[in-house]
Design brief:
The complex is a heterodimer. Chain A is α+β, with helices and mostly antiparallel strands. Helix content of chain A is about 20%, strand content about 25%. The model of chain B has no long low-confidence stretch (mean pLDDT about 90). Classes of the chains: A alpha+beta, B mainly beta.
Chain lengths: ~650, ~90
């Protein structure tokens, strides 16, 4: 997971008397001279943990260790309630050391950096300190999802997903890792398309980037320096990233375990990897420098490329891209494009991670009365190294004006529907843009966007909505855009519903939430975003293990590393969909995307989630590979009877 | 800080609000939905065909206004950055 904002962390800092209450400063002034600033981190925290928190606020990440994932630290704590510690979903691999003495106990665990302050503020935590690494026992997603060969139905035709293409749109494919090579050492990859690569002379397709064929990859694997030989490879480990995302994701879905000893869900599937890039418009700012970016147009082209290369073979594509904003009703053209590609042919699926924004304070909803006003409080952090972005959507029949009020209480003015407004400083440097747009061409709804550049005052901004004409209740939803460096958020209390990603609201795609398979009770991952879509559809559909998942570590040949996120959950579902498609193909069945979705959700396991019906984070339940294949076999038997 | 207010294009077909103004000669990528099967607007270069009514294209930012008035163009989505969901 990347550095996500911590909504509760701020209040924890305030409770402990830290600098959260200091006067807001105009960001940018600090650069003019060295001066001490009160650190916006709880002062009662262990100094080593304080340093980790400050590094996060500065946009730096913590490297993974043998037992902790990236941006996760090993801690030791003294607690008054052991159960309260072990039940928390933000504490992974919790363990009690020694005995409970009647008042306190010593416990250990792995905690995401952004949760440290929240955890320290809990009443049952007496002390919290950085700890030495303890090597944990690790569980595989395969076992919890009932996808081991001994769990699958007798006589299953899934054959590890043989004959099915698993496509991965991501970053950093380590084709040299043993988990992606067959018994002869040859690659299992059909193609790698590096969208940002330099085209090979004399090739016409794809029309940009660099495609590497299976023959080229195998030739490179026979060299002593395969990445140099191919001219492509995963980025080396760095303080900002340990193990590339795409290698880890592809291994969960379809690694064969030849290197790590732990196969993924569909170890016999064929593989296609697209290393996604973004287009020619330079997206600017430090947040971009520190982030991995794709873009909506090139994503759609990547999906089409994989489906084209798969040809008549069944194919599932795994995607871990998104943002917070958008209409969230599936009406964007990139979502509609994915829907069109999925409806075009059976035996195709696209699986997308739900997003990791549940606890980031990025969503607000409410109503505006006719002639009335409604305020939203937008907190811009003291340390702001990037621009901030706000997006609001409401019904096309109503008209809202928007007023922006500075942290010092001064109003900048009112922007009416159909207008936009810019503000600059004395040197004509843009500071903010407000767009109040009516009649979106794809859904007819209205949108208000506000962009704050670096250098605007930090503190609480007020977005005041004026109901100029309200028809149908005046309901709205608003989101704050993702920012991994210095995230802004709405003021608490937060409404964490509707936090799934911007491209995770399409009608046909399958969206996946995350839970912690290291706990016997398989609780939700604290970060796993919630549905539904803005138009009330049930997404995510399903959930899978995404917490502390150990999978291939790039540039190690055979090593593994732990990572957490809904993007570790999605490939588990992609792998199981590959098994489903292989079973169906072996049985002579074709499956539409609606068939695939229906099989996944009707076979999902409950408890958790409790009760019946859709859950806004687990979806319809936890995926069950064995039950999925049973259902395909049942349908195949029925099909044979009828035909 | 003072706001300079201006009018937006009413009922625009273009989505993808930008926080900075682009130069007219900058190349942009877009997803375009068209009402006539296989139609490719003249001011664009076809990149890929999703189906007969949806294409991806590149064009000069300055040419976007031509798409706005093209009756065979239903909707245009300018490229939008997407981050990794870790």
């Amino acid at each position: 997971m990347s550095n996500q904002g911590d909504t509760n962390g701020a209040s924890a800092a305030g409770e402990e008397g830290a600098a959260a209450s200091a006067e807001p400063a105009v960001v940018g002034e600090a650069a003019s001279a060295w001066k001490f600033q009160a650190a916006p981190v709880a002062v009662q925290m262990d100094p080593r943990l304080q340093r980790v928190c400050l590094r996060r606020l500065a946009g730096l990440s913590e490297a993974a260790t043998a037992s902790s994932a990236e941006n996760e630290v090993n801690v030791v704590a003294k607690v008054t309630e052991v159960g309260a510690w072990t039940e928390r979903t933000d504490v992974r691999l919790s363990q009690m050391i020694g005995d409970y003495d009647g008042e306190t106990a010593i416990v250990t665990g792995r905690v995401p950096v952004q949760r440290l302050e929240n955890l320290r503020a809990q009443p049952f935590v007496v002390s919290l300190k950085a700890a030495q690494t303890i090597r944990p026992a690790l569980e595989a997603s395969v076992r919890e999802t009932r996808a081991r060969s001994e769990d699958l139905p007798e006589g299953s035709l899934a054959q590890g997903g043989a004959g099915v293409v698993v496509g991965v749109v991501d970053y950093g494919c380590d084709f040299a890792h043993q988990n992606f090579r067959d018994g002869s050492g040859n690659t299992r990859l059909d193609f790698i398309w590096h969208q940002g690569g330099t085209p090979k002379a004399g090739t016409a397709t794809p029309s940009y980037g660099r495609e590497y064929s299976q023959t080229e990859i195998d030739a490179a694997l026979n060299q002593s320096a395969p990445y140099d030989a191919l001219g492509y490879g995963p980025a080396p480990d760095s303080p900002a990233q340990t193990g590339t995302h795409g290698t880890h994701v592809m291994d969960i879905a379809a690694g064969n375990g030849r290197g790590t000893g732990r196969p993924g869900l569909a170890p016999e599937a064929d593989l296609i990897f697209v290393h996604v890039a973004h287009g020619d418009i330079p997206f600017t700012g430090s947040d971009v420098v520190l982030s991995s970016f794709g873009d909506s147009v090139m994503l759609l082209e990547a999906i089409q490329y994989i489906f084209d290369k798969a040809g008549t073979r069944p194919c599932v594509i795994n995607i871990s891209l998104g943002t917070n904003g958008g209409p969230k009703d599936g009406s964007t053209l990139v979502e509609e494009g994915m829907d069109r590609l999925l409806r075009d042919r059976p035996d195709r699926a696209i699986v997308i991670s739900a997003s990791n924004s549940f606890d980031d304070g990025i969503h607000a909803q409410g109503t505006v009365a006719d002639g009335g006003t409604t305020d939203l409080i937008w907190e811009v952090p003291l340390i702001s190294n990037s621009h901030d972005e706000f997006e609001l959507w409401y019904d096309g029949a109503s008209r809202f004006a928007v007023e922006l009020i500075l942290p010092n209480g001064n109003s900048l003015g009112i922007v009416e529907p159909g207008e936009q407004a810019r503000a600059s400083n004395d040197t004509d440097q843009a500071l903010l843009l407000i767009v109040n747009r009516v009649g979106d061409p794809n859904n007819g709804d209205n949108q208000i966007g506000i962009f704050l550049e670096q250098g605007v005052p930090s503190g609480q901004w007020t977005v005041r909505l004026h109901g100029r004409r309200v028809d149908g209740g005046g309901a709205f939803h608003a989101w704050i855009e993702r920012d991994n460096v210095s995230p802004s958020r709405f003021a608490p209390p937060h409404d964490n519903t509707h936090t799934i990603g911007s491209i995770s609201c399409g009608h046909e795609i399958i969206v996946v939430g995350s839970y912690n398979a290291h706990h016997a009770k398989t609780p939700l991952s604290w970060f796993s975003s919630a549905g539904p879509t803005r138009d009330g559809r049930e997404k995510p559909e399903i959930s899978a293990p995404g917490h502390g998942v150990v999978a291939a570590h790039s540039r190690t040949g055979s090593g593994a590393i732990s990572k957490s996120g809904t993007s570790m959950a999605a490939p588990a579902v992609s792998g199981i969909v590959a098994l489903m498609l292989a079973e169906a193909r072996g049985s002579g069945l074709t499956l539409s995307i609606n068939d695939i979705r229906t099989i996944l959700v009707t076979t999902a396991r409950r408890e958790p989630p409790a009760g019946a019906g859709w859950h806004d984070r687990y979806g319809h339940g936890r995926i069950d590979a064995a039950a999925v294949l049973d259902e395909v076999r049942r349908r195949a038997a029925e099909y044979r009877k009828v035909s | 800080m003072k706001l300079k207010i201006s009018a937006l294009e009413p009922e625009s077909k273009i989505t993808g609000v930008r926080h900075r103004e682009l130069d007219t000669d900058e190349t942009v990528l877009a997803i375009v939905k068209v009402s006539e099967p296989d139609y490719v607007p003249r001011c664009t270069r076809l990149r890929s065909r999703i189906d007969r009514h949806m294409i991806t294209v590149e064009c000069r930012y300055g040419a976007i206004s031509m798409l706005e008035v093209d009756p065979r163009v239903e909707s245009v989505a300018l490229q939008k950055p997407l981050r990794m969901i870790d």
